[in-house]
Amino acid sequence: MSLDSFMQPDGRNLSKAGITLLMAPFFMLIGFAFLYPLISLLSISVTEPELGFQNYERILDTPVYGKVLLRTLWIALLVSILSLFLAFPVAMAMVSSGGAMAVFITACILLPFWSSVLVRTAAWAVLLQRNGIINDGLQAIGIIDAPVRLLYTQGAVVIAMTHVLMPFMVLPIYGALRNIPQDYGRAAAICGAGPLRGFIEVTLPLTMPGVLGGFILVFLTALGYFITPALLGSPQEMMIATLISQQLREFLDWPFAAALVGVLTLFVTAITLVFSRVFRFDRMLGGQL
Q1: In sequence order, what are the beta bridge partners of 280?
Q2: Which carries the bigger pLDDT value, residue 246 or residue 285?
Q3: What is the full DSSP assignment across 171-220?
Q4: How many CB atoms lie under 10 A from the CB of residue 150?
Q5: Quick check: 160 and 112 in contact, CB under 8 A?
Q6: What's the pLDDT band for 42 if we cut at 50, 70, 90?
Q7: Res 5: pLDDT
Q8: Phi, psi for residue 136 in degrees, rounded to 5
Q9: Collapsing DSSP states into helix, strand and coil, what is residue 26?
Q10: pLDDT of residue 286
Q11: Where are the alpha helices (DSSP H) in the chain?
Q12: Mean pLDDT of the region 245-252
């Protein structure tokens, strides 16, 4: 079989058979490393200790598990919103800067990827402890008289997760901003729009694909985050990933942990489908429905 059989008549684009052949290793890897383990784990939730949905009924009948799920959704939403507000100015600075400054800002965004999440989380534990830099600084400027409890709180989890996940928000917004022609801003200024109005009516709508892409990426990642909540959070404010780990490691209750994974998977799938249906990028860009 020749290579020409995988090309379209124009000779420049791949045919459906060619695209399928190129994507086959990727789908095989996804099926072997993700789908098969997930399906095997979810099957345990309905077959052990006996066939049925008793593990899921336990989640519904126990209010504490519902609170853990709602807390997880709330923290993921809060982290996504904070990441958005912090990432947008950084992305705009990356686009508007040039030369050494642009390289410096980009390096500040990319450098965290070169260090482990565990290391970054441990660094926040050092900063937020009672004798850490933050408490010492607040006492030095007179805001507090004695060290306050910053570590092992929901605030510590939100701050650290925002720091870890913010690059995933910056890069999609930066890509969307780079695709906006500079003539659009000048045209808005000629029409009498000030900087704020030009941003609201021109820049922000055109960057919505990047904003929503980054928001979805951060939100879904935060839903299943484990290391940061486990190290900086408290048992009273547990997130669902930490709860799953507790059921596996401490109680060895694999069927119930599998049911928790099933609920989390259901939420992630539902949220993804809602975003893909409601926030279609071609609608926001003025494309045809």
Answers
A1: none
A2: 246
A3: HHHHHHHHTS-HHHHHHHHHTT--HHHHIIIIIHHHTHHHHHHHHHHHHH
A4: 20
A5: no
A6: confident
A7: 52
A8: -65, -40
A9: helix
A10: 38
A11: 16-30, 36-47, 54-61, 63-96, 100-110, 117-128, 133-140, 154-178, 182-190, 195-198, 204-206, 208-223, 227-232, 240-249, 254-278, 281-284
A12: 86
CA angle in degrees (0–180, nearest 5) for 108-114-116: 115
CA pair distance 271, 93, nearest whole angstrom:
31
pLDDT tens for 48-95 read 888 888 988 888 888 898 899 999 999 999 999 999 999 999 998 888
> Comparing C-alpha atoms, which of 103, 100, 105, 97 is closest to residue 178?
97
The residues that bridge with 14 in the sheet, in sequence order, are: 7
Give the position of tokens 């534990």. 125
Evaluate if residue 44 carries a pLDDT over 60.
yes
Phi-psi region of 252 (alpha: psi -120 to 50; beta: other; left: phi over 0): left
The sign of the dihedral angle between the CA atoms of 131, 135, 141, 144 is negative
| Structure tokens that stand for 148 in this block | 């306050």
| pTM of the complete model | 0.83
The burial of 29, by beta-carbon neighbours within 10 Å (0-12 exposed, 13-18 middle, 19 or more buried), is given as exposed
- Residues 6 or more apart whose CB falls under 8 angstroms from that of 156 comprise 124, 128, 150, 232, 233
Dihedrals φ, ψ of 88, to 5°? Answer: -60, -50
Q: Is residue 234 scored above 80 in pLDDT?
A: yes
Contacts of residue 227, Cβ cutoff 8 Å, sequence gap at least 6: 117, 118, 121
C-alpha dihedral sign at 71, 72, 75, 77: negative
Distance CA 246, CA 286 (A): 48
Residue 129 tokens, joined: 């402890």
Question: Could you tell me which residues come within 8 angstroms of residue 40 by beta carbon, excluding any fewer than 6 positions away?
Answer: none
DSSP, res 24: H
Element (H, E) at 150: none
